[in-house]
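User: My instructor asked us to take a sequence, write out its structure as tokens, and then describe one feature of it. I'm not sure where to start. Here is the sequence I was given:
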Amino acid sequence: MSFRFSQFCVALLLPLVTCVVGDSSASATPVALDVAPTSWSSCPSPLFGPRFSAPTVADGARTVALTFDDGPGPSTARILSILLSFHVRATFFNIGVNEAKWASDVRAEATDGFEVADHTWSHPFMTTLSVTAQRSQLAAVANEQRSLVGSSPCAFRPPYGDYNATTSSLASSLSMGEWLWDVDTDDWQAAGSGSSSWTDRIISLAESEGGVQSHPIVLMHDLAVTMPATVAALPTIIRYFLAHHYQFVDLLGRAGPPNSCGTSLTPFATSPRRFLVPGGVLASSESFYSANGEFVLTQERNGVLALLGNGRLLWSTPTRGHVGAVTHLSVSGALSVMMPAGAILWHSSRAHRGDRLGLGNDGEISLSSGAITWWRTSTHLFSLSSYHALGPDWTLYSPNAECRLVMNGTGQLVLQSTSHGTLWSSRGQYDAGSSAILEGNGNLEVVSRIHHVVWASGSLSASATLRVTDAGRAVVSSPGRPWLWSNP
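Assistant: Let's start with the prediction itself. The structure tokens for your sequence are:
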């Protein structure tokens, strides 16, 4: 449970001020655990100290952040279902002991694209604890979440709004922003009741307190008991903020549908291409590379025209067994695999006079003239296996091609969406020309040109694979461990 934070205490926030609200007996402190080094964190650099309003968005629209404390619990699945049905984001501040009990619900929160955050291991008054005990409360949840969903939490909320300078410093050292609230629905007081009076009270508080603010953070709960009043009130609260033109955001500032990269009608910009001009020929064993060198189109000795990316066969023609075949681009625009004597073994389905054969940095093979593409193959790279790398400007796509993980020219590993822009980027020193390497031990590393590791995922397991999901998450997994690492 949480209590409304004292406005007097908010006004007097000083480095050594301790703010304590409400009554509770001290909760058990977990065994001290270490977390991965900060350099492994997937989180953006946090601001120091508590924040009380929702993140803003680029267009300056009003935003609202729905937050749920104390979960997971029996009502988590229903809350997720409602949020997904409205396509709105939210943040779940989970208690460690509940995460251990309802692990599948934590994974569901992350899989569906919601932010999973830290609400301590056992919900104590933080200011009653020693520095070591406070750190254990935060670090234990970070470890639990990393083991369950591959990413450490990027947001922390102290139980009861009770924190001091030590609490804030520890949260910051673990790469977590500290978030309170400014709209309290008091829904925890319903204590499992589903009466209409409690439902109406929750709705009234959310609308009356939130509707007068430009960027409210709404506090609700997902307790270890059923929350029928909260579940009943949630659709009405969402409809209210939608009707008043608020954008729903999580505390990482992400807007848009939580479980999708997007469905933009405008795809990613066409990548740089290299071209084979009309009349060009790829003789047996000759190759044609993309501009960044990631993809190679080869006329193999066995007669197959094959596209490889990262050492993997991505596309080929059904012409195996015809030794000596060549690939020819005619002036009429037809791309053909043919025998030297002229017998055509395979040809592109469409062509136009003057077409050029293009091979893009995204792996697409195309026949185009001017701005018009007459024929193409979708040959994106969808996964990266151990011992392979993403070089500068190399790209890994989600299955729906609406998200991509790019090793950009400045040395950052960046996850992008067609609809929502940048979703995540690696931290550390940037070095143009860096590569992202998935080591044989499963650790994803950004390595500079002089072979310095500037960022690492800290995921360790043999036979690992890096992929991008349609929900907008980059994930390192292995056969027995589906969540070795992920961005938040």
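For the description part of your assignment, you could build on this observation: The domain at 383-486 is CATH 2.90.10.10 (Agglutinin, subunit A). Try explaining in your own words what that tells you about the chain.
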